[in-house]
Amino acid sequence: MSANNAFYAQSGGVTAVINASACGVIETARQHPDRIGKVYAGRHGIIGALTEDLIDTSAESDEAIAALRYTPSGAFGSCRYKLKSLEANRREYERLIEVFRAHDIGYFFYNGGGDSADTCYKVSQLSASLGYPVQAIHIPKTVDNDLPITDNCPGFGSVAKYIATSTLEASFDVRSMAKTSTKVFVLEVMGRHAGWIAAAGALAEDHGIPVLVLFPEVEFDQARFLAAVQEKVERHGFCTVVVSEGAHYPDGRFLAEQGTRDAFGHAQLGGAAPVVANMVKEAFGYKFHWAVADYLQRAARHLASKTDVEQAYAMGRAGVEFALAGHNAVMPTVRRLSNDPYAWEVGEAPLAEVANVEKFMPKEFISADGYGITQACKDYLIPLIQGEDYPPFERGLPKYVTLQNRAVERRLGLFEVE
Amino acid sequence: MSANNAFYAQSGGVTAVINASACGVIETARQHPDRIGKVYAGRHGIIGALTEDLIDTSAESDEAIAALRYTPSGAFGSCRYKLKSLEANRREYERLIEVFRAHDIGYFFYNGGGDSADTCYKVSQLSASLGYPVQAIHIPKTVDNDLPITDNCPGFGSVAKYIATSTLEASFDVRSMAKTSTKVFVLEVMGRHAGWIAAAGALAEDHGIPVLVLFPEVEFDQARFLAAVQEKVERHGFCTVVVSEGAHYPDGRFLAEQGTRDAFGHAQLGGAAPVVANMVKEAFGYKFHWAVADYLQRAARHLASKTDVEQAYAMGRAGVEFALAGHNAVMPTVRRLSNDPYAWEVGEAPLAEVANVEKFMPKEFISADGYGITQACKDYLIPLIQGEDYPPFERGLPKYVTLQNRAVERRLGLFEVE
């Protein structure tokens, strides 16, 4: 009998919809009991595979698996752990094969961003180098939206919807207060290298909100920025600034790194938002408020984009279908067919072309002054945040599922992860 | 003809549902054209009354007024401006009466918290002292939930729902990441004097989340707090801290005031969240993330509590009904009849008993260790966050209304606000 169980793992920072991809993988696998036995999940991602800490998803009811579709975060645990090259750490790859062999695993589904696409690609090559047949499929996921080939990455649309909505709502608040109180509101968002998430904040502009975006792609120029703030406040009475955590000075220093020290002289970690807010206050005396969305933005399943949820699920399902069709070393992608009405289909990318390639925001998506987005960018973003997909609520709170995560019996000795 | 127009103004920090109260006032007034002529709104709150900057709400369509029910913030503008006593600034009260007289205003609806209840009470006494008949009704509103007599304050339930949901969602995220990355997540919430909002974060506990709350009511003890964090992390693998902006040391210093200085020695304003997060990091080396919700929490109409929206609307409607019944110097209240099933009715409180009285969290709502909430507190909170009341969405974003806010023609000379 050929190996017919599947392994699924979540990798890197989790999102509001990564579990929707898990749901797509598991539900689709369950529809093919003749071809796929059990789906084992790695507890804490790939670490679970290395340490033979496998979760038996077949112990979960259909209802529990269905609930993954509307449950944020990584239901099986994720990790930040990148496998080195086969040459640098052959031992880890050999261990992976041992675990796969011991548990009859023939399919490897890896749900993550750029780094995990690379790992997945390495695993896809193991059949040849280590003589054990395994099909490796990468399921795209990242709020950073930086995977190549695919039009967008599941996880991003929901963060974008959350940031656009929050920017709009908080800006309405500031507009109400500006006469005697807050005139400038600063919202810090994720995105160390790319301004995709920050760009979503600028969507509030079409709702009458004066927004300035500080992108990681545009070197920060304090004098020019302050002049822009002043112009907005004088014209509109208030202004909202959306600052990416990756916004930085020409010398590469992040805005967040201001060399601040506490009373005892210890270096103090702060955010970019308070730095920007204090800068504005010092220049003009404007009252300000600031917020740092942090995990709230990527966990906000209550405000997920319906488009994003559907695509996340579809990527999981397509991954299994590709595997059943005999494909290896590929990643399902979103292919955009049209903006308005929005239409898309599932595509397929060879992992060799995905691994270690980062997609940046196109220059033509950032407005000429560097503080906003162009119509092309809006046309790209709006379909991705469209539709609502509310989770069920119970007693006032979302009814998210926590799985049993029952362990598969170990068959091998211990293995230490470095 | 007796004065028959009404004046409505929004005061202090706005909320996700203060416009629902405005909607209740205006829709109810429109149902009584024989008794109430036009509803004029103060542009930027009471400042609009003093400067005769009135908005003619009769210029708005029924649809636009209905949309106020699901639009956060203050549609007419709010302000932070407290009238002094009649003795200290008689000029302002005389001006109010001049404006009321010039525009035939016989009803004064003031939508705010403790300070505005006091102002409203003063205005209610003007008939006697300045000889102009005006009925003054206070419509309760405050995310701080600190008005007396009423069971709760419109605005609070929605913030509580947002904070409880966000704490739950972000904690699921941390739980996923804790193995190799973030172990402690710190969320800073509003509440300088009372821990009502922070308390809502502890509702995530019933969903398996280890939560520690830092209340303004409990003096901060660093050693004891760090021991509690360590215990949670060792037992659960992770921990979430919800810190109130008002959390402080025994000497009264806020956690946020750490005397931090930037590279140039300038005092730096930060939040309590990064201070707490860095403290944990220094003690145990745990990786952390922190968020500051700030305006996001009180503007989050997309996640409003249905109970809260209904009560906000009902308070506006009841205010008009009280006025039509000839009442003066009163505030509609929420009277809780039972917790489960939740039942409430509209009550009525004399403003003399509301003005300048602050309601604190009962001691029996905070758990013995000072870091959590009791069952009594949960029983109180859960009904207030119950039900969802989503706004309509268009192209991915909530479709909030911006009114025309057409000015009423001035009839008086200018007046300078101090």
TrEMBL record, chains A, B:
Keywords: Cytoplasm, Glycolysis, Kinase, Magnesium, Metal-binding, Transferase. Its main location: cytoplasm. Non-allosteric. Substrate binds at residues 142-144, 190-192, 245, 295-298. Pathway: Carbohydrate degradation; glycolysis; D-glyceraldehyde 3-phosphate and glycerone phosphate from D-glucose: step 3/4. The keyword Transcription regulation does not apply. It comes from the Bacteria. The record marks 115 as: Important for catalytic activity and substrate specificity. Residues 9-291 form the Phosphofructokinase domain. The active site is at 144 (proton acceptor). It catalyses: beta-D-fructose 6-phosphate + diphosphate = beta-D-fructose 1,6-bisphosphate + phosphate + H(+). Diphosphate binds at residue 13. It is found in: Cytoplasm. It is an enzyme of class 2 (transferase). Its cofactor is Mg(2+). The record marks 141 as: Important for catalytic activity. Pfam families: PFK. Its EC number is 2.7.1.90. The keyword Lipid metabolism does not apply. Homodimer. Belongs to the phosphofructokinase type A (PFKA) family. PPi-dependent PFK group II subfamily. Clade 'B2' sub-subfamily. Catalyzes the phosphorylation of D-fructose 6-phosphate, the first committing step of glycolysis. Uses inorganic phosphate (PPi) as phosphoryl donor instead of ATP like common ATP-dependent phosphofructokinases (ATP-PFKs), which renders the reaction reversible, and can thus function both in glycolysis and gluconeogenesis. Consistently, PPi-PFK can replace the enzymes of both the forward (ATP-PFK) and reverse (fructose-bisphosphatase (FBPase)) reactions. This is Pyrophosphate--fructose 6-phosphate 1-phosphotransferase. The lineage of its organism: Bacteria, Pseudomonadati, Pseudomonadota, Gammaproteobacteria, Chromatiales. The gene is pfp.
